[in-house]
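@channel sequence for tomorrow's demo:
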Amino acid sequence: MAASMASQAAVRGLRAASTKQLLVSRNQLVRVSPRRWLNLQEYQSKKLMQDSGVTVQRFFVADTASEALEAAKRLKVKEIVLKAQILAGGRGKGVFDSGLKGGVHLTKEPAAVGELAGKMLGFNLTTKQTPKEGVKVKTVMVAEALDISRETYFAILMDRSCNGPVMVGSPQGGVDIEEVAATTPELIFKEVIDIFEGVRDDQALRMAANLGFKGPLEKQAADQIKRLYELFLKVDATQVEVNPLGETPEGQVVCFDAKINFDDNAEFRQKAVFAMDDTTESDPLETEAAKYDLKYIGLDGNIACFVNGAGLAMATCDIIDLHGGKPANFLDLGGGVKENQVYVAFKLLTADPKVEAILVNIFGGIVNCAIIANGITKACRELELKVPLVVRLEGTNVQEAKRILSESGLPITSASDLDDAAKKAVAAIAKK
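structure tokens (generated this afternoon):
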């Protein structure tokens, strides 16, 4: 059961944005670095919003302490907020290996911005969502600090039950929205958007009122809501979340934070947006795998799992654990696999120093098993595979595939089914 939970979590992690802790055996917690897909830094999301007429704080981006100091002077504001830019939450409570505490700082002195930035840039920031060694900060955002008199929550997302986009809002912002939904569901408001009609004026005004905006602020908030929907459509987003959408004492509605998720299938027409993808915080193996349309999840075990399909990947992780082994990863080939992808997959798996055996588990439907077999033999020869290899193939053209493997003369262990394959992979390591 524990392994099943782990493998399901790993599949969910294919679209997660940050490192997670997963239970992969009954007694062990390990870190997983899931496939991120596109995840933008805060300043990048705010730039997209700014370009769509959404009100955000004035800000500059800096890569050096001197640039941060210059940006602080250019803002000419009463108070400045300096934010470290990494793809992880909890920055305000994080700690730098320079000794500086907090990845978010407020100051009224521009000179202090340069000093603080010097203790951020080039140093690792550790938060509750980063690996234990932290993440190196390469960029900081220098922004105008605005007082917030009231915080609300607002999001636009795709909802399968509504067959399209919906607006979700709450007058309780700046907190975990799931907690609000659980404890005070009456404070969650929802508006279904007609994809052909868009956000109507009455819908935007009703949502603004439900969020607690009053008087002139109600119309201002409604305008921001409509602009956020325009952004949602323009960048092919699956979610635009603003928490908080706040009001200032001066009577201004401002988007103080933003998280935007994108439809990865729209990359072909969102090249400028996807070009902003920062892969420096990703596992290099995941980044390389993505180049070849392979989905890779790294785990802490020693048996590499080479499969086609997320469901089969979960089952493979589970059964390895059942027989006392530990999955080192799973690598999903998907459906339209080519021989070169098989070769690249083996190259990625063998690049992981933890891998002591490889288990190939292919159930060929639209996948031709002979293509897999040719890719395996090519990889074994050219990469001079040094670890035990157990192969279980079933499905389309499987007899031809088995012939290719048996006549290759390579030390490949064939398995009759998944249970047999897992037993043999675990046994191969035990013999070493």
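heads up for whoever presents: The first strand starts at residue 20 and ends at 25.
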